[in-house]
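Materials and Methods. Structural model of Polymeric immunoglobulin receptor-like. The 367-residue sequence of Polymeric immunoglobulin receptor-like from Oncorhynchus kisutch was retrieved and submitted for structure prediction as follows.
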Amino acid sequence: MAPHLLLVLRILFFLTGVSYAQSVSTVSHVSVKQGGSITIPCLYDQRYRNNVKYWCRGYNWLSCSTVVRTDHPKTSGKTSISDDINQRVFTVTMTSLSPSDSDYYWCIVERKSKGDDGVRLQISVTPGTPELYVDQQQMTEVVGGSVTVLCCYSSQGNRGRWCKIGGSCVAVGHSGALDGTFVKLVQEESRTTNGYVLMVTMSGLMMENTGWYWCEKGDIQMPVHITVNQPTTTQSTTTISPSVTNRDNVVTNENTDEKHQSWLEFLFIPLSLLVVLIAVTLVTLKMLRKHKDKKAKDQPPNTTVQSSDSEQNITYSTVSHIRGSTQQIPLPDDAVTYSTVVTKNKTQPNAAEPDDVVYSTVAQHQR
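The predicted structure was written out as tokens:
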């Protein structure tokens, strides 16, 4: 049966003008979210470097309609095409996808003398979460560095794989090498979504690792392009975080330093003014205290005020108040003796105030 089936296929491809040779390869089925974009890589054989390539829409080869070509038109609506003859890959990019863009497409190499060579794929546009997707299709790293690709999918289902277009694959739970580079695959449940994550880590990158790869889960693939450059003096090796949580919540040290610096600048002026105010207050208090102490030292101690009249000049006498109806006989001036009576305060024995002086008349009675 096999030889007869092969013969039928040969006749079919000859009649339709399509080559059955596997000289063009690409993914078989991709899922894209509505409004998003997708880039499809189409790898071709070395002998097709100078041939025209084109992108055709439709399930059947004979009935498909050409959308874009590498000669003309290279862009049509939201679809564009480009050809990298060094990598032997032409890529088709479709943007702002809608459910109406869901269909079968063809990567085709035009051959004038023979039937065209091509391969078919399916694109599904969904309004919800795609069955398999990545955050970005283009990644860049330097020689000797490492890169981690996060392939997200909705259900656990079949075991995932990481493949290089036109090359070999590495399955989940296994470690292997692609073009001499170590590859490790880890599958775990996502903490940010309800699905799962396939973490693909490639370490010890070399220039030969530049090219197209894809994540595979069941019959769905998602292409990813990795570019490896030579390190420069201003470029350092960085590793993309393998944790979905860290990837979503990471804050760079540079932003943290800028925030700290802005806070320090904001607090510097009021803190400086507060320090100056405290210093001026302390100096003022110290000067006032010194002035007060100096004034207290300069004030003379309490001295006893001597009365203008000494003890010897004071005549103490007994004053008697005579009550009665007896009429007092006026006395001549030579019979009157005047004396000064000073009232002494025990708490201030030597203090004499003018208001405390009592004047009295002493009359001497002769019996």
